[in-house]
Amino acid sequence: MDLPEEFHLSLPLSMSIARSLGRSEPLKMEIKVFTDSLTGSDLDDRVEARVAEIGSYSTQLTDIVKARDRVAEGIYRIRVNKVENYYSTELHIEKQGTYLSLASLSRQNNLDQVEREQITFANSIRSVSKDSGKHSDFCAGKIAIEGVNTSEYGIYHFRSRKNPDLLLEIMVDSYAPDDQESLLQRVNGANSLLRFLSQRPKVLRQSERIVAGMKVQEWLSVTNNKSEKQYNFALETHGRDKTGPKAPKIHLELKSGQYDLSGKQKNSLDDASAIALWEEIVRSIVLR
After folding, report:
1. Can you state the percent helix, strand and coil of the chain, rounding each to 5?
2. 162 and 143 in a common domain
3. Structurally, how many domains does the chain consist of?
4. From start to end of 147-248, where are the E strands?
5. What is the pLDDT averaged over residues 251-262?
6. pLDDT tens digits, one per residue of 130-173
7. Which of 129, 147, 165 is the last residue of a domain?
8. CA nearest 173: which of 152, 156, 155, 157?
9. What's the pLDDT score for residue 198?
10. Which intervals hold domain Tle cognate immunity protein 4 C-terminal (predicted)?
11. How many helices (H) and strands (E) does the chain have?
């Protein structure tokens, strides 16, 4: 997505990816992207802080740090004995200023293999810029993960520099099937929480449309509650014939009147500006 300039990605963020790396069972990795402005010796300091954090809740039997070493340029390993024969291995990685970690679980009998596969996977992570153009990799901010995965999930939060009350949330799951109930069925159905609200939202628009060649449903609403106006717009893919990187499940929400680090912010939109911003966001959706 090439979002409007005012939106910036909030960090940290989490992703979950699985990949077949030479064995029948795909390796699942939990990935966290912490910052895209790492400098100097910060990586080493961050790794030491993580080791100290694990030590703060470890016991003589659980969460014992078994290894802390550098396995390659810009890649540190922390191996933790979770309990008995179960391990968690974290790789802490720096890619041109972006600091991320990836963690996988293993048992004593496949620990070495899992850690080798983690390093192979880490080498498929590359740094990208906004000018890199369209590509087929799974992306998160300034990094892209090259290669074919068996599952991909990420949830991203964007804030507006122009209007701090605006929050944009995007969920992408490449291989998840559609929900049994579509977006419009959920918001209009008998079990919708909206039916129990004393101040129901005003629906500005609800429709089915085609976005980037995909069938989607959208629901645009506004609520006035005690003189506090809030917009809540949502979009979700629906009716996919197949799943995969070229047919991902996408759920997108734009909300106004939200909290930021300094507290609750006053709504900055009206109907016309909210819909115009929404259309600009929706037009930015492109397939990999």
Report:
1. 20, 45, 35
2. no
3. 2
4. 151-160, 167-173, 202-211, 214-225, 228-237
5. 93
6. 665 556 788 888 999 999 999 999 999 999 999 999 999 999 99
7. 147
8. 152
9. 53
10. 138-288
11. 4, 18
